[in-house]
Amino acid sequence: MGEPKIFFMFLAMVFLKGAVSKVHTVGDELQWNTGANFGSWSQKYNFSVGDTLVFKYVKGQHNVYEVIEATYRSCNGSTGILATYESGNDQIELDQARKYWFICNVGGHCLGGMRFFIDVKEANSTNLRPPTPQSEPPPPPPPPASSCATIYVFDGWSFWISLIAFGVLLQL
């Protein structure tokens, strides 16, 4: 009888993890394109381990390079590249608590503002401080207010159902 209990506890933990993971569309409605203010976009959200970034763009017009900080600052994508993405619908899971730097390496796009960095925290940590400003030139005014592009991987009911199931299993 102990084995099914362990299985259901594991299953409940998987659902609970999914209930708090978020999917962030980079740039919201403007997506990964020139003209978006990615510095402001990245400061609107708190990023946690398990979240996913989605870069949507026209394949061939842009790309996504995950880079080191020096490459981010210089916008020179010839060195310091950790990963490249070019599908037009790139999904990157934030699997570690650390800083991530992203640029578009198409000629002039990075210097034109297609870059940002984020500081990913552990999923269970609380981030009560406002994000620190990025040290780069002041960005152009933000686009008109838009709806939130962050969605939960599972709806709120999944969290509560998983929590109740977990409690019931503890009683077995």
TrEMBL record:
Keywords: Copper, Metal-binding, Signal. The keyword NADP does not apply. It comes from the Eukaryota. This is BLUE COPPER PROTEIN. PANTHER family: BLUE COPPER PROTEIN, OS09G0541100 PROTEIN. GO terms for molecular function: electron transfer activity; metal ion binding. GO terms for cellular component: plasma membrane. InterPro entries: BlueCu_1_BS, Cupredoxin, Phytocyanin-like, Phytocyanin_dom. Residues 1-21 form the signal peptide. Residues 22-122 form the Phytocyanin domain. CDD domains: Phytocyanin. Gene3D superfamilies: Cupredoxins - blue copper proteins (2.60.40.420).
